[in-house]
Amino acid sequence: MDMLSAFGPAALFMISMTITPGPNNMMLTASGANYGFRRTMPHLLGIIGGCFVLFASLALGLGVVFERFPLVQTLLRIIGSLYLLYLAWGIATAPPPHFGASEGHPLSFWQAAAFQFANPKAWVMGLTLMASFLPEDGNTVVNALVLAGVAELVGFPCIALWAGFGTAIGRWLKGPRAWRVFNVTMGALTAACVIFILG
Q1: Helix axes 23-57, 140-172, angle to 10 degrees
Q2: N- or C-end of the chain: fewer Cβ atoms within 10 A?
Q3: What is the pLDDT of residues 15-62, one digit of tens each?
């Protein structure tokens, strides 16, 4: 299967994986609501950049380590789960933006990018993408970079929808009580992703 014939199925796979709920999308929704779409953009780009590097690395050898050493998978789940719970707590306890905006800030580009290496969903997505759609013919490095790039081009608008959804919700929330309920709910949903990681 050449690269051109891989694009269509790979794009459909990425749409199904990135538009569905997960740790990144829960955090983007909360960030969009609390900080707005523009301030959430570094978070968005960090996810794209981190996944690009992760996916390409998996195709070029990192995936073999992951598959051959089950302990690495276990450690990844534990580290990812603990970090996700930490982020969920930050979301749940974030002050309402109009009453304490100076106290909080969205994830930076580098924080969001680094999180992808502790995000089991990103690993599973990358391993499946490269195992299923990476062409066997041609230069492996070029194929890996192109496929990872296409995957992130397709994924960006899907995850951006969640940030936009959060931004829209943020405009409807009135008063500190509504914001507290929203932030606690989003924190709980983010923490709930740990169930699927460890399940």
Answers
A1: 170
A2: C
A3: 999 998 889 999 999 999 989 999 999 999 999 999 999 999 998 887
Alpha carbon distance 197, 47 (integer Å): 18
pTM of the model: 0.84
Residue 167 CB neighbour total at 10 angstroms:
21
Rounded CA separation 127/57 (Å): 10
Structure tokens at 72: 């690495």
Nearest to 126 by CA among 76, 81, 82: 76
Quick one: CA dihedral 65, 68, 72, 78, positive or negative? positive
Helix, strand, or coil (residue 106): coil
CA distance 165 to 161: 6
How many CB atoms within 10 Å of residue 11? 16
pLDDT digits (tens, 9 = 90+) for 89-128: 988 888 777 655 445 688 999 999 999 988 888 988 998 8
